[in-house]
Each structure stands twice: as structure tokens, then as C-alpha cells.
Amino acid sequence: xxxxxxxxxxxxxxxxxxxxxxxxxxxxxxxxxxxxxxxxxxxxxxxxxxxxxxxxxxxxxxxxxxxxxxxxxxxxxxxxxxxxxxxxxxxxxxxxxxxxxxxxxxxxxxxxxxxxxxxxxxxxxxxxxxxxxxxxxxxxxxxxxxxxxxxxxxxxxxxxxxxxxxxxxxxxxxxxxxxxxxxxxxxxxxxxxxxxxxxxxxxxxxxxxxxxxxxxxxxxxxxxxxxxxxxxxxxxxxxxxxxxxxxxxxxxxxxxxxxxxxxxxxxxxxxxxxxxxxxxxxxxxxxxxxxxxxxxxxxxxxxxxxxxxxxxxxxxxxxxxxxxxxxxxxxxxxxxxxxxxxxxxxxxxxxxxxxxxxxxxxxxxxxxxxxxxxxxxxxxxxxxxxxxxxxxxxxxxxxxxxxxxxxxxxxxxxxxxxxxxxxxxxxxxxxxxxxxxxxxxxxxxxxxxx
Length: 450
Ligand SMILES: Cc1cc2nc3c(=O)[nH]c(=O)nc-3n(C[C@H](O)[C@H](O)[C@H](O)COP(=O)(O)OP(=O)(O)OC[C@H]3O[C@@H](n4cnc5c(N)ncnc54)[C@H](O)[C@@H]3O)c2cc1C
What we know:
The protein is of the alpha/beta class. It folds into 3 domains: about 5-45 and about 205-285 and about 400-445, FAD/NAD(P)-binding domain (3-Layer(bba) Sandwich), CATH 3.50.50.60; about 60-100 and about 195-200 and about 285-390, Protoporphyrinogen oxidase, mitochondrial, domain 2 (Polyamine Oxidase, Chain A, domain 2, Alpha-Beta Complex), CATH 3.90.660.20; about 100-190, no CATH class. The protein is built from 12 helices and 20 strands. It has helices at about 15-25, 65-75, 100-105, 115-130, 140-150, 150-165, 175-185, 205-220, 265-270, 275-280, 355-365, 425-445; strands at about 5-10, 30-35, 45-50, 50-55, 60, 80-85, 90, 95-100, 195-200, 220-225, 230-235, 240-245, 250-255, 255-260, 285-295, 305-310, 315-320, 335-340, 375-390, 410. It has a 7-stranded mixed beta sheet with strand order 8-7-16-17-18-15-19, with helices on both faces. A 5-stranded parallel beta sheet has the order 10-2-1-14-20. The longest helix is centred in the last third of the chain and has 20 residues, at about 425-445. The radius of gyration is 22 Å and the shape is globular. The two termini are about 20 Å apart. The structure holds flavin-adenine dinucleotide (FAD). The site of flavin-adenine dinucleotide has 37 residues, from helix 1, helix 9, strand 15, strand 19 and helix 12. Flavin-adenine dinucleotide (FAD) binds near residues 12, 35 and 57.
């Protein structure tokens, strides 16, 4: 410890790492953050289309995301937030079904009227349940099939779980789904139509990330991109330094190290960990994310978010950003994301942008038969390793503590957000929580409670 608080090394410059850095600097500590990629922001990183910034992976907020909203306001950017009604749809058997209001649900003819009513009742029932712990040991498949019937699982939910979580889709813990439904309902306006509203920061979420970066630097924090941490060095059972690779390999001494990287990366760079902790790290599998993005001359679908409930189509959802945010923000282009979550072994992850486009192209005509390749102005492909932790019934009790068994070494990553689905809101909340833990431990003269 120096006179100016502890020297804290943070691994990873996503929203969790940046928030932890900001809060610790505000508490008077010295912070040095090391990010492997050249760009800070992690999964919220952006690029440009038509002169406007846009996320490499689509992002919006729910009105329940109060921690990120509070941070955006604290950074003086609250007036740049916009809230819009979401346009959600389901693509099933070559037809788009709107899927927002109770009336849309009643018109969803792929399942019988009785099943539609059961589906509606399921949502109403789940949103009223206050305690999700009894859903920890039951799978989504078992619970939905029992409550809403096998056809609703087969047509509506099963394809989405299997698309998002691969072979583990049917084993997702019901607590994860309960939580998701509860939050989605809470993001709806009151009234019979119950329209959902979604939030966006005009200019992209990079606006708040950049403001956060500027604040951190004003407070004396050091933030560096292109600086992959290769090893967390421990001596006598406590973390003492980081070995950084890249162009300028060096060893940097620290009093405390906070890692915000995925479990597998953490295990690779951390000192040997006791078996109990290591087993927990291994207990939560991850899926990679992959987004193909098209800039287009025309609109493809009428929806912002179109779930593809047909597994013969090789992508999971179409997110048409410009049905949410005006094309003028992107130089007049229409912008379409093709979303996929994939197992690391998936051959799609080996493909380049043109190969992915060739694979997806025939299917887009099923969604809009008028689609013409001439509409495509440009295309990009982004891959996000370990972007989605998978919470199956086997994950219960396996969430690793933020305080690791190595003194002075903390972990704050998306697998610890259980049972919430990962999102900016929860990474920020976790960053604030871990900053508080570290500050308390340093003030108490030890890094771990006795
Ligand atoms: C397709 C997709 C859609 C999403 N949609 C939304 C949405 O609509 N709304 C929402 O709120 N959230 C959404 N999210 C989730 C949101 O992006 C994440 O929850 C959040 O960004 C996670 O932040 P993080 O800091 O915890 O992790 P990350 O952003 O993953 O940050 C970890 C960082 O660690 C770095 N790193 C890894 N190894 C090393 C190393 N050895 N040394 C140094 N650095 C290293 C990585 O490069 C990365 O920058 C979405 C995510 C995806 C993938």
C-alpha cells in the first residue's frame, strides 16, 4: 500500500473492469487497467456505419436496468437516452408473427387457442413469483412443458433455448428464465396493450464508455489497450504482480489484482487454484457470440427483434437496428444484425465474413421474398468469445466467490451474475460491488475476511 491507497491492477477493459476502476479511483486508490484488445469497451465495443457509431453486438436497455441508467446520468448523458416501443416478432414456418402484446399472443396461430392462453397465463404467473429459488433445480423444458404444454415448448421456447445455448438448451435452469420473464414484464408500459419499451443511448453506448474512460483518466487512472495479461504472479499465497505480453512485455507490481475475464482465461493466467474453486470455474460453460452485420439500402423486416423459431435457418435472430433507431444515424443505411450463439467447436466460428454471408443469404429471402443482393452496401462479421455463460441446473451452487482463495486476487465476470442474464447493468453492478469489497478489505488491512 502507498500513501495514495492500494495499487490495483485490473484485467479487462469491458464495462465491469471500467466501472471497478472508476469506483476505486473515487475511493482514493491507484488503478492500472490492462485490456488485451486495442479498443476498450469489451462486448460493448463499436465501429462505424455511414459516419455513425454502432455496437459490434446489438445492445439496448430495459427500464429495469437502473444501475447503468444511473451511471449514464451520473456521467451527464441522461438526456441522450431514448426510450422506444420494441417491435418483437417470431418467424415460424415462413411467416412473421408480431409478438409483443396479449393480442399478438392470441393471434399466434402456430399453437392452438388453448396453448396460446396457457402461454399467456405462464407469463402472468411467472411475473408474479417473487422467489425464484424453487426454480433452481428444474429445467426450462420440464417446467414449461408441464405448465404451458409440450407444443408451446416445441414451437415457441425450445428453438430459442437450443439456438442460444446449443445442446445445453433443454437443461437451462428455470430460475434463469423466470428472472428474464420477470424483468421483461417489468419493462412494459401499464395498460391493456402492455407494450415493452427499450432504451438506447443516441450515438451508441460508446458515448458513456468514452465518458467513463475520460473520468477515469481525469482521476489519474491508467488505462491501456493492446496489453494482454499473460500471468498473475503470486508469492507466498498472495497476488503481487501481473506479467503483460504484447509489444511491451513487462512485469507490473500490484497490491491487489481484479480479473474481469471469463473463467477459462482466468484459470489459464491465475496461479494454481484449490480444487473446490477451480471446479466452480469449470462448472459454468460459455457460448461464443457471432454477429454478421449488413448495411442495406432498404428495410428487410418490420421488426426490431425477430426470433427465428426455425432451426433449419442457420441464425438465431435478426435484429434490425434501424427499426429502433433511425437510419439517419448511420448515414441513411438500414442496419441488420444476424445473431448467433455458438459452441466453440462450431465450424461457423472458423468462417470469414463472405462465407457466413453465403450461408445465410438463401434464408433471408424466406423472411423477405423481395430481398435482393443489390440492397447490400457493406457487411462485417464480429466474434465474441465466451460471450454468454450458460446457467444449467448443474450450475447451482457453482458460482465462484469474488474473493478468490489467493489473497489480494478478485474475480468479477459474467458467470458470477447468476441467476440474472448477463447485461451491462449487471456487470456495472458487479463492478461497483467488487470495488466496495476491495476497498473494505484494504481498509481492514487484509484482503480476505477471516
Ligand atoms: C450478442 C450480444 C448482445 C448483447 N446485448 C446486450 C443488450 O442488449 N443489453 C445489455 O445490457 N447487454 C447486452 N450484452 C451483454 C453485455 O455486452 C455484457 O454483459 C457486458 O458487456 C459484459 O461486460 P464485462 O466487462 O463483464 O465483460 P467483457 O465485455 O467480456 O470484458 C472482458 C474484457 O477482458 C478482456 N480480456 C480477456 N482476456 C484478457 C487478458 N488476458 N488480458 C487483458 N484483457 C483481457 C477482453 O478483451 C474483454 O474486453 C450483449 C452481449 C452480446 C455478446
